[in-house]
Write a structure and sequence with these properties.
This protein has helices at residues 95-104, 132-143, 181-190, 215-222, 239-248, 262-265, 286-294, 310-320; strands at 45-46, 76-81, 109-115, 149-157, 164-168, 194-197, 228-233, 236-237, 251-255, 276-281, 298-302, 305-308, 321-330, 333-340, 346-350, 362-365, 369-376, 383-390, 393-394, 402-408, 410-411. By secondary structure, it is α/β, with parallel strands linked by helices. The strands form three sheets. Strands 2, 3, 4, 5, 6, 7, 8, 9, 10, 11, 12 and 19 form a twelve-stranded mixed beta sheet that branches. Strands 1-20-18-15-16 form a five-stranded mixed beta sheet, with helices on one face. A four-stranded mixed beta sheet has the order 17-14-13-21. A hairpin with a 6-residue loop joins strand 4 (149-157) and strand 5. Helix 1 packs across helix 2 (132-143). It binds zinc ion.
């Protein structure tokens, strides 16, 4: 999307439509999934007391804003933003700031994806070499000694029916400057590119805000030239894009598409975060990320919402919520202390609303913090099990995953 008003350009071959600056979105009032409709959820289990995987460390010394999620069995959980802009297309900052923001946010990787055809700053920054923003970002990351992977991308920027798409892991962006959009995707694929549809629901190109595929997208999928789709972009989510991803076996992605400053757009000082994709990779490298993306091993995270295939979201939730203790202090009311080891605030509903002694049927696990629930277990029991429906996560449109917290209990002597 384009938060700034596009200005006339002499280089664009097919301009994106004009769009106005989006209103500043207050993060604290943003969508919470609490009110989301409920439908037959999937079941997943966590033997919580047995899980002992350290949360991923994100060195860099930027404190609370660092995005952290625990690794999952068999894979590292990498945090990536695959869609960003600088002044080399219609962004407002030099590429070095994209690098510094990414380091501050604790990202493992950031892709620089300037619009190929849309160059509103061309009079001031001619940009004859479309690789330039990426190369500057790589240089800056090396100069700063940043522990950050910088990925080479470009945004294919066409009117509908093609719309906007990113190609990443490119060797050279310049050969992508072609008239025929099919040829652009083919060239990207020849270079080993991973191509994904950007904000297919964007009101700038879809009046109704509803994502749908055009025949050319279906052709791209058939030819193996389209590999992923953004289900969240900036502060928007598209349930239709999620359905398309599942139906056509496209990788589920969430990106910032940042043009201005991450701190302002996502209110980082107030506790906000940039939207990202969590990638479950065998190794922390560009090759590891690419392999995981091609295998569809991702979860998108925007505001409090986590979106992914059940096979990837379930292990992430199980690794995130860990039972620290389950203790009877008085009677048969069990204090269950749960640590949330991820940066996502997780809102869940108990399957049995009579079970909670304190609080209502909704439970909120604050990020990187402990929460203690009190359960009425009827009689003291050596084990407990608590089934939750995770309302702040989606595995399909309108389908939430289930999570079972369980473990051994300890007890103080009766009658104290
Ligand atoms: Zn963009």
């Amino acid at each position: 999307m384009h938060p700034s008003m596009p200005r006339p350009t002499t280089t664009a071959t097919d301009l994106p439509p004009v769009c106005a600056r989006r209103p500043h979105a207050p993060i604290l009032r943003r969508l919470r999934m609490v009110a989301a409709k409920l439908a037959a959820p999937a079941v997943l289990c966590a033997s919580a007391l047995l899980v002992d995987v350290a949360a991923s460390a994100h060195p860099g010394g930027h404190g609370d804003r660092q995005i952290r999620f625990p690794d999952v069995p068999g894979a590292l959980t990498l945090v990536v933003d695959l869609h960003t802009h600088s002044v080399f297309s219609d962004g407002s900052v030099w590429p070095d700031l994209r690098v510094e923001e990414a380091v501050r946010d604790g990202l493992d990787a950031v892709a620089i994806t300037e619009h190929l055809e849309y160059q509103p700053h061309a009079d001031d920054i001619p940009h004859p070499d479309r690789n330039r923003a990426y190369l500057i970002a790589v240089e800056e990351a090396a100069k700063a000694g940043a522990d950050l992977l910088v990925i080479h991308g470009s945004e294919i920027t066409r009117r509908m029916p093609v719309g906007h798409a990113n190609a990443i892991f490119l060797e050279d962006s310049n050969p992508l400057l072609r008239d025929d959009p099919l040829e652009v995707f083919r060239e990207a694929a020849r270079q080993g590119g991973f191509n994904f549809l950007n904000h297919p629901h964007w009101v700038g190109q879809r009046d109704d805000g509803v994502a749908r595929l055009e025949p050319i997208h279906e052709q791209l999928i058939e030819e193996g030239l389209l590999h992923g789709i953004e289900v969240t972009n900036d502060l928007t989510f598209s349930s239709e894009a999620l359905a398309i991803a599942l139906q056509h076996d496209l990788t589920i992605l969430g990106t910032s598409d940042i043009h201005g400053l991450v701190d302002w757009q996502y209110e980082i000082p107030q506790g906000g975060h940039r939207p990202v994709t969590l990638v479950f990779a065998a190794e922390r490298s560009e090759a590891g990320i690419e392999q995981a993306l091609r295998a569809g091993r991702t979860v998108a995270w925007m505001n409090d919402l986590l979106v992914g295939r059940e096979e990837h979201l379930a292990p992430l939730l199980a690794a995130s919520l860990v039972v620290e203790s389950a203790h009877y202090r008085r009677g048969a009311v069990l204090d269950v202390t749960v640590r949330n080891r991820g940066s996502a605030r997780i809102t869940a509903r108990t399957a049995d609303s009579d079970l909670l002694y304190s609080g209502g049927p909704l439970v909120v696990f604050e990020p990187l913090a402990e929460t203690t629930l009190q359960l009425k277990t009827g009689a003291r029991s050596p084990r407990f099990e608590l089934e939750l429906e995770v309302l702040s996560a989606l595995v399909e449109p309108e389908k939430h995953p289930r999570l079972v917290l369980s473990g051994e209990t300890t007890a103080e002597a009766e009658g104290d």
